[in-house]
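TICKET #2291
ISSUE: user wants both folds in one file
ATTACHMENT 1:
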Amino acid sequence: MHRDLYDEPLRLRRVLERVRAAEEADAEPLAITALALDTEPEPFADVVGRPFAPFAVGSAWGPAWGTTWFRLRGSVPERMRGARLELAVDLGFTAVQPGFQAEGLAYRPDGSVIKGVEPRTAHLPHEGGDAHEVDVYVEAASNPTLGWRGPTPLGDRTTADEEPLYRFARADLVAVDEEVRALGHDLEALLELAVRLPEDEPRRHRLLTGLLRAADLLDGGLDAPAARAVLRPLLAAPATASAHRVSAVGHAHIDSAWLWPVRETVRKCARTFANVLALAEEHPELRFACSSAQQYAWVQEHQPGLWERIRAAVADGTFVPVGGMWVESDTNLPGGESMVRQLVHGGRFFREELGVECPEVWLPDSFGYSGSLPQLVRLAGARWFLSQKLSWNQTNPFPHSTFWWEGIDGTRVLTHFPPADTYNGEITADELLRGQRQLRDSGPASRALLPFGYGDGGGGPTREMLERAARYADLEGVPRVVVESPAEFFAGAEEEYADQAPVWSGEMYLEYHRGTYTSQVAMKQGNRRTEHLLREAELWASTAAVRTGAAYPHEALERLWRSALLHQFHDILPGSSIAWVHREAREVYARMGAELEGIVDTSIAALGGGGEVAFNAGPFAVDGVPALGSGPVRAAPGEVVLERDGDDLVLDNGVLRLRLDAAGVLTSVHDLRAEREVLAGPAHLLQLHPDRPSNWDAWDIEPQHLAHRTDLVEADELRAEVRGGVAEVVVVRTHGPSRFEQRLRLAPGAGRVELETTVNWQHRATLLKVAFPLAVHADRSSAEVGFGHVHRPTHTNTSWDAARFEICAHRWLHVGDASYGVALVNSTTSGHDVTRAGAGERRGSAPTTVRLSLCRAPGFPDPDADRGTHTFRYALVPGADIAEAVREGYRANLPLRRGAAAVEPLVAVASGRAVVEAVKLAEDRSGDVVVRLYEPLGGRTSVRLRFGFEHRDVEVVDLHERADAEVAALAPYADGVLELGPFQVVTLRVRR
């Protein structure tokens, strides 16, 4: 027959459907009873004794975010005894992705966990034994399907209605025909390979010919053994000698919060991990990579029986802890010390609770990667790094799959991006061949990693995936598939390719999701304030412990750090979760702030003394108050003159002269020291842009919207006064539904202009920025990142430059030319843009405009994101170099505190260039003092340290505060002098 007379793949898919339908040789309905909770989820023990009501298949159940318990009971009919039996349970699953709809967790009558009941794993093992009885409880979560865009009230239980979302579809005991099931796996693996091979590939046609012969046999009746015999030679053809090798790693990326609240993630972890353990009993070859110590800790707390099974699976190599971090955090927004603590708390949990050290950092889905990470990865004892997210780049494809990633300090870590461009793989022929095509370094490199398993909302690997892996293990037409651990992949890749691997230097900027630097202002402000309060709490508690013997609050600080680290997860801190998540996070930040303030107050009070002094938690002296200690404040000399010049206001403190027009717009900042005008146009200028991303509302800012703006130059109210020697100008503006109050302050002798904007933000689909056109010709900006800074071009010479139209900075951003620089420091925001203004026909330098992104108003996934009142504080520092930007950044985030005692710092930088980032007591509770510091400017330096307490010795240690000869060799320390390289981070353990 001519091959083009009918659609061969279509016929074969229909045959496959028929075979799949025949897997169940028999079925027996189970009796169902149900109990719907009108509360938040409750443990099995609290539910099982309550009355359950009869429930029928086809009935509606489950309001949004509700929990319904089902009990399934029955007996095995005589006709089904001796067969392979399973329970088939369908809660009303839809065709959308698993993990984004209803899910359940099955229990035995004694309360032990069986496995999850989810859209792609909707089966349970029959465990009735000789009694031939079925008795199973299912805790079913009616989580709503939210889609991908558009405002929805379903993102919070407080706004969702009570209408049921699902209709219970099935609860049967089924007998499985294992030979028919195996035939289905054979057919699927070969068919999907055939249709992915090129038309001119002989292997494609041989596969189709054999499949059609099997289909002809099956048309006459479902003779599975005969059909499998026809297919067996096709499955026996080995891969070519040069075939690539794919390391298939079981995986279930579970977002610690996203389109579901944290409390639901706790249950998702139990469902998914139980699925994995059940699957490993059928397929002992499974290796399941699982990150995030927080998720293990949830299971340990809420499902102790399941936790013990996980511990056993870790010991036998089935369950493979990876990543060594508390959560898969964002890496752009958290401070450097937070990234250290992600590794410290995660690593310690894995080491103490599971007995493992993770050799890799695992961040497949975070939205770009800070250039400070490679050094921290190595200092934490890891060797490798895995991600995938840069495959989402909108403009420039990332050029490598396996490469050395070099950090801002020069440290390198071997890195892999799975070339199939997914962390939710299914081991399909399409993924395997796509990964082979896209392996950027093919030639010297011959292997890639493929994480497989349903993820984001969990679910994990399935038996169908492992059946495909078995058939693709050594098969002509696809890469060889080996199910193995990430460490086995990386060790092989390192041996094969490390000497030839290319190098990527600096940050890995994601050309997408740039709005996450700004969305959900309260997340950014809560995180920033919490990070600095944690620093203060540790510093003053350590000082009190050393000076007075006060008890150090180890337990409280550990709990608070872990809560802060959880909220740095890459869909919480970036602002891309549902309303419920952010509502709870705001409450958590408020509680953490109050508790940390209490620890600080208690510690300062313990230090005692008389008189009025200021406590300075920053690493630089401020107004005469020593760094990391306390003392009297030295008032700045001089005064501020505030006067009218026509319609303008003029402020002059002898260092800076400012001019504001009648609408309160800052029109001039004259640096009297340099006799230089700082501004190139109206500054502290609020600007509005339309903000309607094409796809991902909370995630994205799109460049076409930045071309359209509205400047807010009308004032409803303007007032000015000098109070306590400080001049202040207040301007009130309104636009549409929002109200803006801007403040400008100039203090005597100050070389900075302190600025503040309070906004009652009620706009929708709008981006608010504040602009500073600066009279400097800068070809690059410098932005603070963890433990250093990065340079980014201000021009758009290349597509790589143009793609960085929105950038992230921590406490400061600096621009300058050869003779003069300006810093913009902040305590409340992260998103910025820096552009070169066109000079037009005028000859001369082009000014540079720096803008801070203050507010957005995305409609999804939280329809009321950022609506409310927010205060943003920042400062313009004319004439600043980068060293001053660093100092002013700390000053803006660590204001002086009042106290009574003059306290000598525990550690001081007597000479040289270093920033003390953390002072704390050791994690092992030995009482040793731990000091972490870094070189901030990107150069070499010799630092002399002075410790203000009696001590035995000082040792350079790793981030886990352990002796490490390699780490110590990188930072020579002797007789109080420490040698530091560019941006080098060093941890010192000082034994008392």
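ATTACHMENT 2:
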Amino acid sequence: MKASDLLVAALENEGVEYIFGIPGEENLDLLESLAGSRIKLVLTRHEQAAGFMAATYGRFTGKAGVCLSTLGPGATNLVTAAAYATLGGMPMLMLTGQKPIRSSKQGRFQILDVVDMMQPVTKSSRQLLSGTGIPSRLREAVRLAEEEKPGATHLELPEDIAQEEVDGIPIDPSQTRRPVPEEKAVRAAVEKLRAAKAPILVIGAGANRKLTSKMLTELVDTFGIPFVTTQLGKGVVDERSPHFMGCAALSSGDFVHRAIDAADLIVNIGHDVIEKPPFFMKPDGTEVVHINFRSAEVDPVYFPQLEVVGDIANAIWQIKTGLADHPVFDCTRMREIKRHHDAHLEEGADDDRFPVYPQRLVADVRRVLPSDGIVCLDNGIYKIWFARNYLAHGPNTVILDNALASMGAGLPSAMAATLVNPGRRVLAVVGDGGFMMNSQELETAVRLGLDLTLLILNDAAYGMIRWKQADMGFRDYGLSYNNPDFVTYARSYGAEGHRIASADALAPTLERCLAEGGVHVIDCPVDYSENDRILHHEIQDRSAEV
């Protein structure tokens, strides 16, 4: 067989379902091999979108999503997606083409050192130097992408290597189990919890794994332990729980930070330094137990007194077993803070002003989406409102990026969510700025026949930066623009277009679009004028009074 055939056979052996991307002439042997494969090629309109889709596939499944590009400009377009996957802990494998490495008559045309370029944003970047090495290189790239902490890996396939005649078979994935935490460390964590009167769990990015949700839910419900989440920890435990104290959407000064301050022990689960810290440790302050797949990365504001390193779900199960005869914790102070937190979330939920205010928008989306519905966010000021005000009912029902925080990911991530979760309602919420960075993928969504609703929040500006600009006392300059007619734009791709003309029209429009199926684009004017007053002043003042 050709080496490209062997590569496709190895990908099939890994259980690969989709390859997202844009082939170039350097990929044509691989493309021909894919044509006879059960793997589906999802042709996108930009390589960055293909990378975002592959990373999101990895986030949902725990298996490496695969994306494809040619050399040079195709490969450079994948760099942002590689960083998105690696910082966000999403397993992804990138395959890029290259000119022949043994002889080439095109000089240096389009040639960059792509392998070296990918090194800083991947866990591994290698060139395939021979067809016989493909099974081992592919297996290793997938293994590295999927093991903790997950991230992006990269393989470069030169044209002449792809054409080689080879003998070989794929290498089967090995059966692996994560190491269990050391028993003495678990026992020490149990002793600290037994000695605590008001502990709190802080659930972070690393806790967003399949079995961890079940174990944490049992621990919280059995012993009544309050919990907060980071943005990437949203939904790991159902946020309708009476023990949910809030999401650390703001850096400080929110009710959630008051709840953490009220704790006499912080159990930090799945902490990842890529997220803004939900609390800052101080010498002689509240003790912290660190539970994660890896040991803590120590910095001036994070130096836990105890580390439980190993499989998180197993650690939580052992802790639950160790607390078996412990009574339910009485965290009266935290529950009083929660009462004020929940009351504040309800304010503005029925605000009828127009353009739509963020509190009303988030409340309407929550009312419309079922518990297993998925909302995929691009990056903008609305991400803070959703992280703080939207209650996630389950893991990976709020897909946001609080790691690289790249604009342009909202639509592609929602497309991948739809492919991975057929039959579930998926809503992409994007700013007008982020939408236009990958808006061409509307054609891909329509071509794939996806059932997907896209809600564009239209303020004709890069609103997050404009807000920061105003907050720092600078003049309003350089951040406003004009938009196309989004309804006409959507229809030009074959999607349905809708325009919101009143606050009361949003929820029924969302309901209708989600029920009808197909690709729908909703243009919704939004008013961010109260962001600074509420997020920077009102919340801080009111939480300080509790």
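RESOLUTION: both attachments delivered.
EXTRA DETAIL ON ATTACHMENT 2: The chain has a mean pLDDT of 95.
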